[in-house]
Design brief:
Rossmann fold; alpha/beta
Amino acid sequence: MVENITRLDTSQLAYYLGIAGNRWLATRLEFVGTCIVGLAAGFAVAARSPGDLSLASLGGLSITYALSVTQTLNWLVRMTAERETNIVSVERISEFSRVRPEAAAIVESFRPPPGWPSSGAISLNNLYLRYRPGLPFVLKGIRAEIKAGEKIGIVGRTGSGKSSLLYALLRLVEPCNSEGTPGPTPNAVKIDGVDVARLGLKDLRASVSIIPQEPWLANGTIRFNVDPLGRSSGTAIWNALKKAHIEAHILTLEKRLDHMIEAGGRNFSVGQSQLICLARALLRQSHVLLLDEATAAVDPITDDLIQRTIREEFRHSTVLTIAHRLHTIMDSDRVLVLEEGNVVEFDSPKALLEKPGSFFGALHKAAQSKQMKEDMGDDSDDSHDDVLATVHV
Protein backbone atom coordinates (compact mmCIF):
# COMPACT_ATOMS: atom_id res chain seq x y z
CA MET A 1 0.00 0.00 0.00
CA VAL A 2 2.77 2.43 0.97
CA GLU A 3 4.76 1.56 -2.14
CA ASN A 4 1.67 2.03 -4.32
CA ILE A 5 1.03 5.50 -2.84
CA THR A 6 4.70 6.43 -3.30
CA ARG A 7 4.69 5.38 -6.95
CA LEU A 8 1.36 7.16 -7.52
CA ASP A 9 2.79 10.37 -6.04
CA THR A 10 5.81 10.10 -8.31
CA SER A 11 3.55 9.63 -11.34
CA GLN A 12 1.33 12.55 -10.33
CA LEU A 13 4.34 14.86 -10.14
CA ALA A 14 4.98 14.44 -13.88
CA TYR A 15 1.25 14.46 -14.73
CA TYR A 16 0.68 17.69 -12.79
CA LEU A 17 3.54 19.41 -14.58
CA GLY A 18 2.10 18.34 -17.94
CA ILE A 19 -1.38 19.67 -17.09
CA ALA A 20 0.06 22.90 -15.70
CA GLY A 21 2.05 23.38 -18.91
CA ASN A 22 -1.08 22.85 -20.99
CA ARG A 23 -3.04 25.42 -18.97
CA TRP A 24 -0.16 27.89 -19.28
CA LEU A 25 -0.17 27.40 -23.06
CA ALA A 26 -3.98 27.58 -23.36
CA THR A 27 -4.15 30.89 -21.44
CA ARG A 28 -1.62 32.55 -23.72
CA LEU A 29 -3.15 31.15 -26.91
CA GLU A 30 -6.57 32.40 -25.82
CA PHE A 31 -5.02 35.81 -25.24
CA VAL A 32 -3.49 35.78 -28.74
CA GLY A 33 -6.89 34.75 -30.22
CA THR A 34 -8.66 37.52 -28.29
CA CYS A 35 -6.19 40.06 -29.64
CA ILE A 36 -6.87 38.87 -33.22
CA VAL A 37 -10.67 39.11 -32.73
CA GLY A 38 -10.29 42.57 -31.18
CA LEU A 39 -8.17 43.76 -34.11
CA ALA A 40 -10.69 42.36 -36.63
CA ALA A 41 -13.54 44.12 -34.86
CA GLY A 42 -11.54 47.33 -34.60
CA PHE A 43 -10.71 47.34 -38.30
CA ALA A 44 -14.37 46.59 -39.19
CA VAL A 45 -15.53 49.58 -37.16
CA ALA A 46 -12.80 51.85 -38.53
CA ALA A 47 -13.67 50.92 -42.13
CA ARG A 48 -17.41 51.45 -41.72
CA SER A 49 -19.20 53.49 -44.41
CA PRO A 50 -22.85 54.66 -44.01
CA GLY A 51 -25.13 52.93 -46.47
CA ASP A 52 -22.45 50.48 -47.73
CA LEU A 53 -23.76 47.07 -46.62
CA SER A 54 -20.93 45.19 -48.37
CA LEU A 55 -18.37 46.52 -45.86
CA ALA A 56 -20.59 45.53 -42.97
CA SER A 57 -20.94 41.99 -44.32
CA LEU A 58 -17.18 41.73 -44.86
CA GLY A 59 -16.56 43.00 -41.33
CA GLY A 60 -18.92 40.37 -39.91
CA LEU A 61 -17.22 37.66 -41.97
CA SER A 62 -13.75 38.68 -40.77
CA ILE A 63 -14.89 38.65 -37.12
CA THR A 64 -16.47 35.20 -37.62
CA TYR A 65 -13.21 33.77 -39.02
CA ALA A 66 -11.22 35.55 -36.28
CA LEU A 67 -13.32 33.77 -33.63
CA SER A 68 -12.28 30.41 -35.09
CA VAL A 69 -8.59 31.40 -34.99
CA THR A 70 -8.36 30.58 -31.27
CA GLN A 71 -9.44 26.97 -31.74
CA THR A 72 -7.28 26.51 -34.84
CA LEU A 73 -4.27 28.08 -33.14
CA ASN A 74 -4.71 25.79 -30.10
CA TRP A 75 -4.93 22.74 -32.34
CA LEU A 76 -1.89 23.73 -34.43
CA VAL A 77 0.39 24.43 -31.44
CA ARG A 78 -0.73 21.30 -29.53
CA MET A 79 -0.19 19.04 -32.55
CA THR A 80 3.25 20.53 -33.15
CA ALA A 81 4.23 20.01 -29.48
CA GLU A 82 2.84 16.44 -29.51
CA ARG A 83 4.78 15.64 -32.67
CA GLU A 84 8.00 16.91 -31.07
CA THR A 85 7.30 14.84 -27.96
CA ASN A 86 6.50 11.63 -29.80
CA ILE A 87 9.43 11.89 -32.19
CA VAL A 88 11.83 11.70 -29.21
CA SER A 89 11.12 7.98 -28.87
CA VAL A 90 11.94 7.48 -32.55
CA GLU A 91 15.20 9.41 -32.13
CA ARG A 92 16.17 7.30 -29.10
CA ILE A 93 15.43 4.04 -30.88
CA SER A 94 17.43 5.22 -33.88
CA GLU A 95 20.35 6.21 -31.64
CA PHE A 96 20.34 2.99 -29.62
CA SER A 97 20.16 0.91 -32.80
CA ARG A 98 23.55 2.37 -33.77
CA VAL A 99 25.20 1.75 -30.39
CA ARG A 100 27.78 -0.99 -30.48
CA PRO A 101 26.73 -3.62 -27.90
CA GLU A 102 29.04 -4.89 -25.19
CA ALA A 103 30.75 -8.22 -25.58
CA ALA A 104 29.00 -11.38 -24.44
CA ALA A 105 28.60 -11.90 -20.72
CA ILE A 106 29.92 -15.45 -20.96
CA VAL A 107 31.96 -16.99 -23.76
CA GLU A 108 31.42 -20.73 -23.41
CA SER A 109 34.41 -21.54 -25.61
CA PHE A 110 36.78 -19.56 -23.36
CA ARG A 111 36.05 -19.75 -19.63
CA PRO A 112 38.69 -18.91 -17.00
CA PRO A 113 39.99 -21.74 -14.84
CA PRO A 114 38.31 -22.25 -11.43
CA GLY A 115 39.56 -19.78 -8.82
CA TRP A 116 40.92 -17.37 -11.42
CA PRO A 117 42.75 -15.11 -10.77
CA SER A 118 44.71 -17.13 -8.23
CA SER A 119 47.68 -14.77 -7.83
CA GLY A 120 46.88 -11.50 -9.62
CA ALA A 121 49.83 -11.05 -11.99
CA ILE A 122 48.97 -8.46 -14.68
CA SER A 123 50.70 -8.06 -18.03
CA LEU A 124 50.11 -5.03 -20.26
CA ASN A 125 51.51 -5.38 -23.76
CA ASN A 126 51.03 -2.69 -26.41
CA LEU A 127 47.71 -1.50 -24.94
CA TYR A 128 45.87 1.16 -26.98
CA LEU A 129 42.57 2.80 -26.07
CA ARG A 130 40.33 5.54 -27.36
CA TYR A 131 36.73 6.24 -26.45
CA ARG A 132 35.28 6.21 -29.97
CA PRO A 133 36.49 6.32 -33.57
CA GLY A 134 37.85 9.67 -34.60
CA LEU A 135 39.03 10.67 -31.13
CA PRO A 136 42.73 10.68 -30.16
CA PHE A 137 44.24 7.78 -28.24
CA VAL A 138 44.13 8.09 -24.46
CA LEU A 139 46.45 5.09 -24.02
CA LYS A 140 49.29 4.75 -26.51
CA GLY A 141 50.92 1.35 -26.41
CA ILE A 142 51.15 0.86 -22.64
CA ARG A 143 53.65 -1.81 -21.63
CA ALA A 144 54.10 -2.94 -18.01
CA GLU A 145 54.57 -6.14 -16.04
CA ILE A 146 52.95 -6.22 -12.60
CA LYS A 147 53.91 -9.11 -10.35
CA ALA A 148 51.42 -11.06 -8.26
CA GLY A 149 50.64 -9.31 -4.98
CA GLU A 150 52.37 -6.04 -5.91
CA LYS A 151 50.99 -2.72 -4.72
CA ILE A 152 51.14 -0.26 -7.62
CA GLY A 153 50.49 3.47 -7.36
CA ILE A 154 49.37 5.27 -10.54
CA VAL A 155 50.01 9.02 -10.92
CA GLY A 156 49.92 11.58 -13.70
CA ARG A 157 48.34 14.80 -14.85
CA THR A 158 44.62 15.06 -15.54
CA GLY A 159 44.05 13.36 -18.88
CA SER A 160 47.20 11.25 -18.68
CA GLY A 161 45.18 8.00 -18.84
CA LYS A 162 45.03 6.87 -15.21
CA SER A 163 41.32 6.03 -15.06
CA SER A 164 41.36 4.88 -18.68
CA LEU A 165 43.86 2.19 -17.71
CA LEU A 166 41.40 0.79 -15.17
CA TYR A 167 38.57 1.00 -17.72
CA ALA A 168 40.69 -1.06 -20.11
CA LEU A 169 41.36 -3.70 -17.45
CA LEU A 170 37.61 -4.10 -16.84
CA ARG A 171 36.74 -3.58 -20.52
CA LEU A 172 34.33 -0.79 -19.64
CA VAL A 173 35.80 0.70 -22.80
CA GLU A 174 37.10 -1.85 -25.27
CA PRO A 175 40.78 -1.44 -26.20
CA CYS A 176 41.73 -1.11 -29.84
CA ASN A 177 44.79 -1.80 -31.94
CA SER A 178 47.48 0.66 -32.97
CA GLU A 179 45.51 1.65 -36.09
CA GLY A 180 42.50 2.58 -33.97
CA THR A 181 40.15 -0.06 -35.37
CA PRO A 182 38.03 -2.00 -32.86
CA GLY A 183 39.59 -5.13 -31.47
CA PRO A 184 42.61 -5.11 -29.15
CA THR A 185 46.04 -6.50 -29.92
CA PRO A 186 46.08 -10.16 -28.84
CA ASN A 187 47.26 -10.53 -25.25
CA ALA A 188 47.20 -6.74 -24.70
CA VAL A 189 45.94 -7.36 -21.15
CA LYS A 190 46.60 -10.64 -19.38
CA ILE A 191 45.76 -11.56 -15.79
CA ASP A 192 47.48 -14.69 -14.55
CA GLY A 193 48.25 -15.58 -18.14
CA VAL A 194 44.63 -15.31 -19.34
CA ASP A 195 43.88 -12.89 -22.19
CA VAL A 196 40.99 -10.82 -20.81
CA ALA A 197 39.91 -9.78 -24.34
CA ARG A 198 38.71 -13.33 -24.96
CA LEU A 199 36.76 -13.63 -21.71
CA GLY A 200 33.09 -12.94 -21.23
CA LEU A 201 32.44 -9.71 -19.36
CA LYS A 202 30.70 -11.45 -16.47
CA ASP A 203 33.64 -13.80 -15.92
CA LEU A 204 36.06 -10.87 -16.00
CA ARG A 205 34.23 -8.35 -13.84
CA ALA A 206 33.11 -10.91 -11.27
CA SER A 207 36.76 -11.73 -10.60
CA VAL A 208 38.10 -8.19 -10.15
CA SER A 209 37.05 -5.70 -7.45
CA ILE A 210 36.99 -1.94 -7.94
CA ILE A 211 36.29 0.94 -5.59
CA PRO A 212 35.46 3.86 -7.93
CA GLN A 213 36.01 7.56 -7.37
CA GLU A 214 32.25 8.12 -7.32
CA PRO A 215 30.69 5.47 -5.05
CA TRP A 216 27.84 3.49 -6.57
CA LEU A 217 24.99 2.22 -4.39
CA ALA A 218 21.79 0.59 -5.62
CA ASN A 219 18.26 1.16 -4.37
CA GLY A 220 18.03 -1.57 -1.73
CA THR A 221 19.10 -2.60 1.74
CA ILE A 222 22.60 -2.26 3.16
CA ARG A 223 22.83 -6.06 3.14
CA PHE A 224 22.02 -6.13 -0.59
CA ASN A 225 24.57 -3.41 -1.44
CA VAL A 226 27.38 -5.12 0.48
CA ASP A 227 26.48 -8.65 -0.67
CA PRO A 228 24.43 -8.36 -3.91
CA LEU A 229 24.53 -12.09 -4.60
CA GLY A 230 23.54 -13.08 -1.07
CA ARG A 231 26.40 -15.52 -0.65
CA SER A 232 27.72 -14.31 2.73
CA SER A 233 26.40 -14.66 6.26
CA GLY A 234 25.39 -11.74 8.47
CA THR A 235 28.53 -12.23 10.55
CA ALA A 236 30.76 -11.90 7.48
CA ILE A 237 28.91 -8.74 6.40
CA TRP A 238 29.27 -7.16 9.85
CA ASN A 239 32.96 -8.07 9.85
CA ALA A 240 33.43 -6.35 6.48
CA LEU A 241 31.58 -3.25 7.71
CA LYS A 242 33.78 -3.17 10.81
CA LYS A 243 36.98 -3.35 8.78
CA ALA A 244 35.62 -0.56 6.54
CA HIS A 245 35.02 1.62 9.67
CA ILE A 246 31.31 2.09 8.92
CA GLU A 247 29.95 -0.42 11.45
CA ALA A 248 29.36 2.22 14.16
CA HIS A 249 27.09 4.26 11.89
CA ILE A 250 25.12 1.20 10.73
CA LEU A 251 24.48 0.24 14.38
CA THR A 252 22.74 3.59 14.94
CA LEU A 253 20.17 2.83 12.22
CA GLU A 254 16.87 1.32 13.31
CA LYS A 255 16.85 -1.58 10.83
CA ARG A 256 20.63 -1.88 10.63
CA LEU A 257 21.50 -4.23 7.72
CA ASP A 258 17.91 -4.01 6.46
CA HIS A 259 18.01 -0.19 6.33
CA MET A 260 16.99 0.98 2.85
CA ILE A 261 19.49 2.91 0.75
CA GLU A 262 18.01 5.29 -1.78
CA ALA A 263 19.17 5.14 -5.40
CA GLY A 264 22.67 6.54 -5.67
CA GLY A 265 23.04 6.55 -1.87
CA ARG A 266 21.22 9.87 -1.47
CA ASN A 267 20.51 9.22 2.22
CA PHE A 268 24.22 8.66 2.94
CA SER A 269 27.13 11.04 2.63
CA VAL A 270 29.65 10.49 -0.15
CA GLY A 271 32.25 9.35 2.36
CA GLN A 272 29.87 6.85 3.98
CA SER A 273 28.87 5.52 0.55
CA GLN A 274 32.55 5.04 -0.26
CA LEU A 275 33.05 3.04 2.95
CA ILE A 276 30.13 0.77 2.04
CA CYS A 277 31.79 0.18 -1.34
CA LEU A 278 34.99 -0.69 0.52
CA ALA A 279 33.05 -3.19 2.66
CA ARG A 280 31.73 -4.77 -0.53
CA ALA A 281 35.30 -5.21 -1.83
CA LEU A 282 36.46 -6.59 1.52
CA LEU A 283 33.70 -9.18 1.46
CA ARG A 284 34.69 -10.41 -2.01
CA GLN A 285 38.45 -10.65 -1.28
CA SER A 286 39.46 -10.60 -4.93
CA HIS A 287 43.10 -11.15 -5.89
CA VAL A 288 42.98 -7.97 -8.02
CA LEU A 289 41.75 -4.71 -6.47
CA LEU A 290 41.44 -1.42 -8.38
CA LEU A 291 41.18 1.87 -6.46
CA ASP A 292 40.23 4.95 -8.50
CA GLU A 293 40.96 7.79 -6.05
CA ALA A 294 38.71 5.88 -3.65
CA THR A 295 39.50 8.03 -0.62
CA ALA A 296 39.10 11.43 -2.28
CA ALA A 297 35.78 12.06 -0.47
CA VAL A 298 36.87 11.13 3.08
CA ASP A 299 38.81 13.07 5.70
CA PRO A 300 42.55 12.41 6.23
CA ILE A 301 42.01 10.40 9.43
CA THR A 302 39.50 8.05 7.77
CA ASP A 303 41.80 7.93 4.75
CA ASP A 304 44.62 6.61 6.94
CA LEU A 305 42.31 4.00 8.47
CA ILE A 306 41.16 2.85 5.04
CA GLN A 307 44.71 2.64 3.71
CA ARG A 308 45.73 0.59 6.74
CA THR A 309 42.77 -1.75 6.21
CA ILE A 310 43.64 -2.20 2.52
CA ARG A 311 47.27 -2.96 3.37
CA GLU A 312 46.25 -5.56 5.96
CA GLU A 313 43.29 -7.22 4.24
CA PHE A 314 44.70 -7.20 0.69
CA ARG A 315 48.33 -7.91 1.51
CA HIS A 316 48.29 -10.99 -0.76
CA SER A 317 46.33 -9.26 -3.55
CA THR A 318 47.49 -7.12 -6.44
CA VAL A 319 46.33 -3.55 -5.76
CA LEU A 320 46.36 -0.75 -8.35
CA THR A 321 45.76 2.66 -6.76
CA ILE A 322 45.15 5.94 -8.57
CA ALA A 323 46.54 8.43 -6.07
CA HIS A 324 44.60 11.43 -4.80
CA ARG A 325 47.05 12.06 -1.97
CA LEU A 326 50.66 11.17 -2.68
CA HIS A 327 51.33 9.82 0.81
CA THR A 328 48.82 7.01 0.19
CA ILE A 329 51.13 5.43 -2.41
CA MET A 330 54.51 6.15 -0.84
CA ASP A 331 54.60 2.63 0.61
CA SER A 332 53.70 1.06 -2.75
CA ASP A 333 56.06 -1.48 -4.25
CA ARG A 334 56.26 0.55 -7.46
CA VAL A 335 54.78 3.72 -8.96
CA LEU A 336 53.50 3.88 -12.54
CA VAL A 337 53.79 7.44 -13.89
CA LEU A 338 51.67 8.24 -16.97
CA GLU A 339 51.89 11.24 -19.27
CA GLU A 340 49.63 11.70 -22.30
CA GLY A 341 48.84 8.00 -22.43
CA ASN A 342 52.47 6.84 -22.19
CA VAL A 343 54.48 5.27 -19.37
CA VAL A 344 57.27 7.70 -18.46
CA GLU A 345 58.41 6.10 -15.20
CA PHE A 346 57.81 2.78 -13.47
CA ASP A 347 59.91 2.02 -10.41
CA SER A 348 59.86 2.03 -6.63
CA PRO A 349 59.07 5.36 -4.90
CA LYS A 350 62.55 5.45 -3.38
CA ALA A 351 64.28 4.94 -6.71
CA LEU A 352 62.14 7.60 -8.40
CA LEU A 353 62.79 10.13 -5.63
CA GLU A 354 66.54 9.59 -5.98
CA LYS A 355 66.47 9.75 -9.79
CA PRO A 356 67.66 13.15 -11.16
CA GLY A 357 64.95 14.95 -13.12
CA SER A 358 62.30 12.44 -12.08
CA PHE A 359 58.67 13.37 -12.84
CA PHE A 360 57.56 11.69 -9.61
CA GLY A 361 60.31 13.41 -7.61
CA ALA A 362 59.25 16.83 -8.88
CA LEU A 363 55.64 15.99 -8.08
CA HIS A 364 56.56 14.92 -4.55
CA LYS A 365 58.49 18.15 -3.94
CA ALA A 366 55.58 20.24 -5.24
CA ALA A 367 53.19 18.38 -2.95
CA GLN A 368 55.47 18.95 0.06
CA SER A 369 55.70 22.64 -0.79
CA LYS A 370 51.91 22.85 -0.99
CA GLN A 371 51.57 21.12 2.39
CA MET A 372 54.05 23.54 3.97
CA LYS A 373 52.02 26.50 2.67
CA GLU A 374 48.87 25.04 4.20
CA ASP A 375 50.61 24.46 7.53
CA MET A 376 51.79 28.09 7.52
CA GLY A 377 48.22 29.32 6.89
CA ASP A 378 48.59 30.17 3.21
CA ASP A 379 45.10 30.02 1.70
CA SER A 380 46.23 29.92 -1.91
CA ASP A 381 44.00 27.47 -3.78
CA ASP A 382 46.45 25.07 -5.39
CA SER A 383 44.61 21.94 -6.38
CA HIS A 384 46.15 18.53 -6.99
CA ASP A 385 45.95 19.09 -10.73
CA ASP A 386 47.59 22.52 -10.37
CA VAL A 387 50.53 20.82 -8.72
CA LEU A 388 50.70 18.28 -11.51
CA ALA A 389 50.60 21.05 -14.11
CA THR A 390 53.83 22.56 -12.70
CA VAL A 391 55.79 19.34 -13.16
CA HIS A 392 57.85 18.81 -16.30
CA VAL A 393 59.58 15.60 -17.29
